[in-house]
Design brief:
Elements (H helix, E strand, L loop, with lengths): L3 E4 L6 E2 L2 E2 L3 H11 L3 E5 L6 H10 L9 E3 H12 L3 E4 L18 E4 L8 H12 L4 E3 L5 E3 L4 E3 L2 H11 L4 E2 L5 H11 L6 E5 L2 H10 L3 E5 L18 E3 L2 H13 L9
Parallel strand pairs: 1-4, 1-12, 4-5, 6-7, 7-8, 8-11, 12-13, 13-14
Antiparallel strand pairs: 2-3, 9-10
């Protein structure tokens, strides 16, 4: 039975600075149920500090450790391997890596750098890759819903660098199984006891299912008709929005006869 919940943020809980209708009330229902939860996101335009502030403005009080981000996973990887990154990331995200040495870089990190996805910066990254630097990325997402329509994410630029340098990037955010398993471990659960809710058929739901979790695709955010066919793994459920997904989870949770932890 379900013993933990992972919830995507952008496109599932909010679009830009606006709540997706019913999302905050749905999260409060999860919190009241006793089910432990984590917010897991590949968002690479805001550090965890700003994500927490955004949730607070939406009316959710959450401790920092409840927000589990791909930039955190990248930072941990760099620190453990003593790598010096060339950072192709959004300026707001620089604070997440300020404590790491960056002179004479020997690794390339790609997030959503927006306007700096230009020839000069991509060529600098390409030359480092040819010298043997690993290519690390927060995700391979192709696009996301920006509130005014779909917008290119970092994935297409990662693929361009892979093709040019003849290498394979290491993905440290969704849909990496390691990323999902780290979130599951924080919940104190096994993968099959955790359900992932998100608007990205491939990265959120397909990635979770491939990692042994359960998955619910919500028809909000970047979702477009037919995305169910892009999940790539059997066993996914589909909900209108986060509120309906939470209702589905809590209905199953209420039927669980096993003793429950209220942590």
């Amino acid at each position: 039975m379900i013993k933990g919940v992972l919830i995507d943020l952008s496109g599932t809980v909010h679009l830009g600075a606006q709540e997706i209708p019913g999302a905050v009330a749905a999260i409060r229902r999860v919190q009241s149920s006793g089910l432990p939860l984590r917010f897991v996101t590949n968002t690479s335009r805001m550090p965890r500090r700003m994500l927490r502030e955004l949730l607070q403005r939406l009316g959710l009080q959450v401790p920092p450790e409840v927000i589990f981000t791909a930039p955190q996973a990248v930072h941990r990887h760099l620190r453990e391997r003593q790598l010096r990154p060339f950072l192709l990331i959004h300026p707001r995200l620089m604070e997440e890596f300020a404590d790491l040495p960056q002179e004479d870089p020997n690794a390339v990190v790609v997030g959503l750098v927006e306007e700096k996805f230009d020839y000069a910066h991509l060529n600098q990254a390409f030359r480092l890759l040819l010298q043997g630097a690993p290519l690390l990325t927060m995700g391979r997402t192709r696009y996301f819903e920006a509130g005014v329509g779909l917008q290119l994410d970092a994935g297409p630029f990662v693929v361009a660098l892979e093709y040019a340098a003849g290498i394979q990037a290491r993905v440290l955010g969704k849909p990496s199984a390691d990323f999902f398993h780290a979130g599951v471990a924080e919940l104190g659960c096994r993968p099959e006891e955790v359900v992932m809710i998100g608007d990205d058929a491939a990265s959120d739901v397909g990635g979770a299912l491939a990692a042994g979790l359960r998955g619910i695709l919500v028809r909000t955010g970047k979702y477009r008709r037919g995305d169910e066919d892009r999940i790539g793994q059997p066993g996914a459920k589909v909900a209108k929005d986060l509120a309906e997904a939470v209702a589905m989870i809590l209905e199953e949770y209420a039927q669980d006869p096993a003793p429950r932890s209220r942590a």
